[in-house]
Amino acid sequence: MPRTGKTVSGAPNARGRKAGSTTKAAPAAKAALIDIAETLFRAARDSCGEHQHYAELAKRGAPDTEQRTALSAVHGRDEILDEAADLYELACLEESNHADDAWWHRANMVWRAAKEYLRHQGDSRRSTRFDNGHSRAELRELSIEYELEASALLHLRHAIDSYTAVRPAAV
């Protein structure tokens, strides 16, 4: 869950409000956070869609050039997802008084799942960066990391579905 309750300048105080904020600013801040949450949601949804497209191309044995193009799109969408997750985390530091809002809990689920997926995806990339003849143990470890990445991606898809259930307008 994004960090909340910090008392540094500009961040929420113990009651979840910024010092000196007015009640009129709260709805605008909530709307801005919802917009950022929906940006994260769409980035996650689009990343999953690109992964699905690439998987379908690989499964049917599409030409290498088409697969490389799709893989490039996957990497681009993952970068956007990473930026959206960071943006959401920063926004939650500023505005976090939504403990009773279902959308906020679902957005946090998407954020957590995105961070977990991105961590596993980064680990997989680092493991395959150098093709220097992997040992059996390294290949076993790489296989496990790919399975963890696939599981994290599935978890991200479930979090997206959960967010859609409480914010159907986000689609």
Written overview of the protein:
By secondary structure, this protein is mostly helical. It has a single domain (25-170), classed as Four Helix Bundle (Hemerythrin (Met), subunit A) (Up-down Bundle), CATH 1.20.120. It is built from 4 helices and no strands. It has helices at 25-59, 64-94, 102-128, 136-166. Helix 1 runs antiparallel to helix 2 (64-94) and helix 1 (25-59) packs across helix 4 (136-166).
Mean pLDDT: 78
Strand content: under 5%
- Taking the alpha carbons of the first and last residues, their distance comes to 23 Å
CATH structural class: Mainly Alpha
- CATH architecture, by name, is Up-down Bundle
Query: Given the helix and strand composition, which structural class is it?
Result: mainly alpha
How many helices? The count is 4
Number of strands: 0
Report the C-alpha radius of gyration, rounded. Answer: 19 Å
Anisotropy-based shape: elongated
N to C succession of SSEs: HHHH
Low-confidence runs? 3-23
Nutshell version of this structure?
The protein is mostly helical and 171 residues long. The protein has helices at residues 25-59, 64-94, 102-128, 136-166.
Question: Topology of this protein?
Answer:
Elements: H1 25-59, H2 64-94, H3 102-128, H4 136-166
Helix pairs in contact: 1-2, 1-3, 1-4, 2-3, 3-4
Keywords for this structure?
171 residues; mainly alpha; 73% helix
